[in-house]
Write a structure and sequence with these properties.
mainly alpha; 2 strands; 2 helices; 114 residues
Length: 114
């Protein structure tokens, strides 16, 4: 049994930032669809409403990525702080043999008798 005592704050922050930015990219089309529907449903037509929605949709992944970076850094820092007090996360690791593993036993084909 292995115990994870600490994590790299910047490495967790970078990965969390990239994950959240990816989430923002996935949500961008949904945001644009709702913005388009909202623009079409208005009684008073605002001339730049569609442009504002496009700018906000572009900023969405950047904002999500920034928030993910900050939240990831705070989470990693808190994990390192609390793992000193309560112990780390226990991991059970197994060692895999090198190379690809066949999902079933490979039996060579029988050679025909001549």
């Amino acid at each position: 049994m292995y115990m994870l005592k600490s994590v790299g704050v910047m490495s967790v922050a970078k990965i969390a930032g990239l994950l959240y930015a990816s989430l923002g990219l996935l949500l961008m089309p949904v945001f644009l669809l709702f913005a388009l529907l909202g623009t079409l449903a208005q009684r008073d037509h605002v001339p730049f409403a569609g442009l504002i929605a496009i700018v906000l949709a572009i900023l969405l992944p950047i904002a999500y990525g920034s928030m993910g970076f900050v939240i990831g850094a705070i989470s990693a820092w808190l994990y390192n702080l609390l793992s000193q007090w309560a112990g780390g996360v226990e991991l059970e690791l197994i060692q895999q043999p090198d190379g690809p593993i066949a999902p079933y036993p490979v039996v060579p084909p029988a050679t025909p008798a001549i």
